[in-house]
Structure formats: structure tokens, C-alpha cells
Design brief:
This protein starts with a helix and ends in a 10-residue tail after the last helix. The protein is flat, with a radius of gyration of 31 Å. The protein has an 8-stranded mixed β-sheet with strand order 3-12-13-9-8-4-7-6, with helices on both faces. The protein is α/β, with parallel strands linked by helices. Helices cover 47% and strands 9% of the residues. Helix 6 packs antiparallel against helix 7, helix 10 crosses helix 12 and helix 11 packs parallel to helix 17.
């Protein structure tokens, strides 16, 4: 309170003196005379309200307080305000200093524009030019010009660098906001979250700095992703597999995310995804035996036909235990899902919450949900909104979900311009003020970097974060479709486009990290394993189905039809029910209740102990009570 009141009156006095010395009429300051008459407590209350929730304050006051915060944060002996005051005292030409002060604020407006709108001018689309947005980030739109490029500005401190030239400031801003990663976050209402993000992406100018070994590991996982799809394409020509080609950088991204999360204490992962890339994720992230995948392609009967009625291979889930590179053991789950692509999102949140409540009630961060979406589905299916909107509710929250969109820029056959009204398919993220990172899927290091940012954000704030992985779809909706029927221009470009592995290999070759035969060696070694597994699978008569989350059902077994029809004793003793009824038909004597509640409880007591007739609600309550007596949890949600 003291800070805001004192500074407001100092500001009023300071400005009057400056304007007098500059030869301006004090009438200019008369517009701010309210500062002298205003109730001081009103200022304090309004400022406290602004700090708690900026959007709750009237816009002109909000702008004033934002300026006040900036001014007090940068006020020092070298600040423009002090410089102009010093110049006045020394009798210098104040018009020059005043112009410099104005340009300092213009540079601040430029910095704010990069933070707010820089994501619109990125290099995130790997296959075609981005749409044109106006106004752009040209200097002239901010009262600056080419003549200012070599001028040193104190405003550089706003991006945590020492005062430097406008040219250098622009270089930093372009790297942070306009390269392979575009970041949306300025709509977030908590200043501390915005500051955390700015510090995070300002470090290393939002450009990853991986070691040579880390780069080789990224290339290795990228090779697995590319080689797996190439192998299936040659061995099972024309069969549906919903290829990941065009988004293969997802595999090294997920690999790095899971390993890094384990180092931060995450012990279980629950993932849901649609068809696109599922087989690749099962093989190269979850470690599913490719012999089983090949058997599914060959259409063999299942090893347990009596209990498993069959499904397509890109619907199946898997649970596995994985060792991280540092030796940690983690549990990873990929939930099975139907063709209603986004339904699985609700399922994985439920599984995650159950695991958190059961195993880690004091630390929800130990179970991490990861939801993979398609661009058309995340924008077009209403269930996404319903799930996202519940993300912070006490009954449903799961400590933050990492949402990854495999963005093909086309939904089935529809161009994205005809598929949605919003600028981005991820605009649903703004409902819960979740940050979004738009990433060029051809820049694999940027993809890994974005995944690690998303992990850090989730672990820091326990809330959702979105990654928009902007790539393409090499073939049609499935491998039996002809995409050139509806997208001839796009697929003419894609026919000549290199895959992410080859693009990354060329970069590492140019940097001297690998030699010319390195990738070929990786590919031959991986394909040799696939060939061996294909040969082994063709010697088997049946397809093996690995149960999903079998570790959670220890002591339970699948029942056949005869077992399902066997009579089971579900009786509960009358004495036990009587004890339960005594508890649920008595209200605490030290509390006062409204008459309708008292009547309801009394009626239930009469039912059980006098008339011996129960209504449905009383029967349900007795059933819940019997379950809790036997040690089972009862969760009630919804209506």
C-alpha cells in the first residue's frame, strides 16, 4: 500500500516539475489532478485487486498499473526518466532526451508485440507458406526505423539482457519467438506464470543446446520411426496402418519426455491417442514386440478367441514396464480406443486420477497423462472442450495433462481453412489459459525442446500445456486413399519433401557429429531386427494379445460365458444393514439443519425401523454403506 501511494504522489510531483522545465503548460498535468484528491485507501484496494486478478480492474486503471509496475521495476540511475530529469537539471536540450525516452517506450511496445503476436510470424510450417497477418512486426509499425538499428536501448533489460543496439534486441526476439517454435502465453492472467515462461524461453533464446551424444540419441529414435514405417510400407503394401510419416519427430520427442519425466519423479504414464502413428508408438516407445504387430497385419486368429472378440490393430492398447536410460523403472500405459477419436481422452484422465488417488494421494505429479490428438479432431469434437474444462476441478483434476497435436494440416480430405473458424486447432487451450507451443515437426531438436518445456511447465504449475506439432501426412487418410483427389497442390510439394530423419542427418553431418555412413548403419541394424521378427511371426499360427493394465487386476481373471452366468452370493447380513441404517438415519446433534433435511432423514429412519419399506434412494445408500464396510471406495460424481 505504501509503495503505490507514495509513488503516485511522487510521480505527480515529478511530472509537474519536468513539464514546467520543458516549457509546457501545467494544464497538461491538470488532467491528473485527481491524484491529489483521491482517497488513498481506494488506490491501495484497487492496486491489490489488480495484483490478484488484472482482468477484474477497469481497463484504463489496468493500463495505468501495468505502466506503474514497469516503471518501478526499471527505475534506477540509468533509466530514461532519470536521464531526462538530469538533462533538465543540467540545462541540456530536452527535446533530444525526450525523443530518446519515447523511442525507449517504442522498443518496449515492439518487445510486447513479439511476445503477444510473434507466434503468427514463425517458421513452423514445414511444407507451405504461412498465412499473412497484419499488422506485422516491421519497425515502422512501432515508431522506429532502420536509422535506430545501431542505437543502444535500455529497454533490452525487459528481455533480461544488458542494454544493447536495436539490431541485437531484434536478433534475440526473432530467435525466441519467430523460429521453429511459436509460443502463445500472453493471455495467461498470473504474472508469475508469464514471468516463468519468459525466463524459460529467454534462456538460450528458446533454441536447444544438446550434446553430441544427445543428438545421436535423437537421430537414433528418429531412424526407428522412419525405418518402421518404410518397412511396413514395403511388406504390407496398401494395408491400412495410419502412418506417422510426416510427424516422425513425435517418437524422439516422446522418448525424451518420458525419460526426463522419470528423472523428475514421475513413476507412471497414461497415454491416449487416435490411430495416426499408434503402431509406431507401440513399437518404438512402448516396446511392443513387432512379431505381434506383424501377426495382426497377417490377419491371424487370436490366441484366446473365446475371450477376445477381435479388433483392428490400431485400436489396441498396451501396458509395459520400461527402463529409462538412467536405469529407472517406470510403468507406461497406452489406453485402447474406438474410432470416436477423442473419447479416449476422458478414459485416460479417469485412469490417471484413479492411480493418483490409489497410489500417490499426496503427490499427483507422479502419474502423468499424455493426450495425443489429431488437428481436425481436437478442433472439431466437443468432448475435448468438456475434458479440458474439467481440468482444474477438485473432483477431476490430474495435476496437468500434456496435450500433443499431430497436426497434418488436413482432416480426412478437408483443408484446415475449411475445417475451423479459429486461427489454430489448439485454440481450445485458451479456455483454461494453458500455454501452447507451435513447433515445426521437421526440426526435431525443436520438437524435443518443446516437449521438455511442456514437462517442466506441468511439473511446476500442475496444469495443462499444449504442443501443436505442425507436420504433414505423407499418404491419404489411410494408405488406401488417394490424397491428390482433394489436395493436389499440397501433395505435389510432399512428393519432393525429405523426411525428418534425412533432414536432421544432413544437419549433424554438416556439424561433424556423424559421418556419411552413420545413418545407413542405423537403418540396416534396425531393419535386420524387423526382418528377424517378421520371419519369426510367420512361424506362429496365432496372434498374441497382451492384456491392458493387467498389473492392476492381479487376482482377477477374465470370465467365459458359463462363468458369467454362474450364480453369485451377493447377500449382506440384516444385522450389518441395521448398523449402517443407524448411522445414515441420524444427524449430528451439535449441528442445526433445515427442516426439509431433518424430515428426509426421519422418513428414512421410519422406512427402515418401522414400516419395513424402502425407496430406491434408501436402498442405494445401504448398498454404498455395505461397500464401504467391506473396505471398498465409493466415488459419486455427476448428477
Amino acid at each position: 500500500m505504501y509503495k503505490i501511494i507514495t509513488t503516485l504522489f511522487q510521480l505527480s510531483y515529478f511530472c509537474k516539475n519536468i513539464f514546467n522545465k520543458l516549457g509546457h503548460s501545467t494544464n497538461i498535468m491538470d488532467r491528473f489532478s485527481f491524484l491529489n484528491a483521491a482517497h488513498t485507501e481506494f488506490f491501495a484496494e484497487l492496486y491489490d485487486q489488480y495484483l490478484e486478478n488484472p482482468d477484474s480492474v477497469e481497463p484504463s486503471w489496468r493500463s495505468f498499473f501495468q505502466g506503474f509496475d514497469f516503471g518501478t521495476a526499471t527505475y534506477n540511475d540509468e533509466s530514461p526518466a532519470v536521464q531526462i530529469a538530469t538533462a533538465v537539471a543540467e540545462g541540456q536540450d530536452c527535446s533530444i532526451v525526450s525523443d530518446k525516452l519515447q523511442k525507449e517506450f517504442n522498443v518496449l511496445k515492439l518487445i510486447d508485440a513479439y511476445r503477444t503476436r510473434g507466434h503468427l510470424f514463425t517458421k513452423t510450417n514445414p511444407v507451405r507458406d504461412r498465412r499473412t497477418y497484419s499488422p506485422n512486426l516491421d519497425l515502422e509499425n512501432f515508431g522506429l526505423s532502420q536509422a535506430d538499428l545501431n542505437v543502444v536501448f535500455d529497454a533490452a533489460k525487459a528481455i533480461k539482457i544488458a542494454p544493447c543496439t536495436l539490431q541485437e534486441i531484434l536478433g534475440h526476439l526473432d530467435k525466441i519467438y519467430c523460429q521453429s517454435i511459436g509460443v502463445e502465453y500472453m493471455y495467461i492472467r498470473k504474472p508469475e506464470v508469464i514471468q516463468w515462461i519468459q525466463d524459460k524461453i529467454g534462456y538460450n533464446d528458446n533454441i536447444p543446446k544438446f550434446s553430441a551424444d544427445e543428438k545421436k540419441n535423437i537421430l537414433g529414435k528418429l531412424n526407428e520411426a522412419v525405418s518402421f514405417e518404410n518397412f511396413l510400407h514395403t511388406k504390407y503394401v496398401g494395408q491400412k496402418r495410419f502412418s506417422l510419416e510426416g510427424g516422425e519427430s513425435l517418437i524422439p520427442g516422446l522418448d525424451a519426455l518420458i525419460d526426463a519425466a522419470a528423472e523428475k519423479g514421475v513413476e507412471q504414464f497414461v497415454m491416449g491417442m487416435a490411430h495416426r502413428g499408434r503402431l509406431n508408438v507401440l513399437a518404438n516407445i512402448f516396446g511392443k514386440n513387432t512379431q505381434d504387430i506383424f501377426s495382426e497385419f497377417d490377419g491371424k486368429d487370436y490366441d484366446d478367441d473365446a475371450l477376445f472378440d477381435g479388433d483392428v490393430k490400431y485400436h489396441l492398447g498396451l501396458t509395459s514396464d520400461r527402463k529409462t536410460k538412467s536405469g529407472k523403472s517406470i510403468n507406461i500405459n497406452l489406453a485402447p480406443n474406438p474410432s470416436h477419436l477423442e473419447t479416449v481422452g476422458a478414459v485416460i484422465e479417469g485412469i490417471t486420477r484413479a492411480k493418483q488417488d490409489r497410489y500417490y494421494p499426496e503427490d499427483a505429479s507422479k502419474v502423468l497423462p499424455i493426450a495425443l490428438h489429431g488437428d481436425a479432431a481436437v478442433a472439431g469434437q466437443g468432448i475435448v472442450y468438456e475434458i479440458v474444462q474439467m481440468a482444474q476441478l477438485d473432483g477431476y483434476k490430474t495435476g496437468g495433462t500434456i496435450h500433443i497435436v499431430i497436426n497434418n494440416q488436413v482432416g480426412f480430405t478437408t483443408n484446415y481453412l475449411d475445417a475451423r473458424s479459429s486461427t489454430y486447432c489448439t485454440d481450445i487451450a485458451k479456455v483454461t489459459l494453458s500455454p501452447v507451443l507451435h513447433v515445426n515437426a521437421d526440426d526435431t531438436e525443436a520438437v524435443v525442446h518443446a516437449m521438455l518445456f511442456a514437462l517442466d511447465y506441468r511439473m511446476e504449475f500442475g496444469s495443462d500445456v499444449f504442443i501443436d506439432l505442425l507436420g504433414y501426412r505423407k499418404y491419404g487418410h489411410n494408405e488406401g486413399d488417394e490424397p491428390r483427389f482433394t489436395q493436389p497442390k499440397l501433395y505435389k510439394l510432399l512428393a519432393k519433401h525429405k523426411n525428418p530423419r534425412d533432414i536432421y542427418a544432413e544437419k549433424l553431418l554438416a556439424d561433424g557429429i556423424i559421418d556419411g555412413g552413420y545413418v545407413k548403419g542405423l537403418e540396416e541394424k534396425y531393419k535386420a531386427v524387423l526382418e528377424e521378427n517378421l520371419e519369426a511371426s510367420r512361424k506362429k499360427d496365432l496372434t498374441v494379445i497382451t492384456p491392458f493394465m493387467q498389473n492392476e487386476w492381479e487376482g482377477f481373471y477374465q470370465a467365459d460365458a458359463s462363468e458369467m452366468l454362474r450364480k453369485v452370493d451377493t447377500t449382506f447380513s440384516k444385522e450389518g444393514l441395521t448398523e449402517i441404517a443407524k448411522v445414515i438415519t441420524e444427524l449430528p446433534s451439535d449441528k442445526k439443519f433445515i427442516s426439509k433435511i431433518q424430515k428426509l432423514i426421519n422418513d428414512r429412519k421410519t422406512m427402515f425401523f418401522e414400516t419395513d419399506k424402502l425407496d430406491w434412494a434408501m436402498a442405494e445408500l445401504l448398498a454404498y454403506g455395505s461397500l464401504t464396510v467391506e473396505g471398498y471406495d465409493v466415488r459419486i460424481s455427476g448428477q
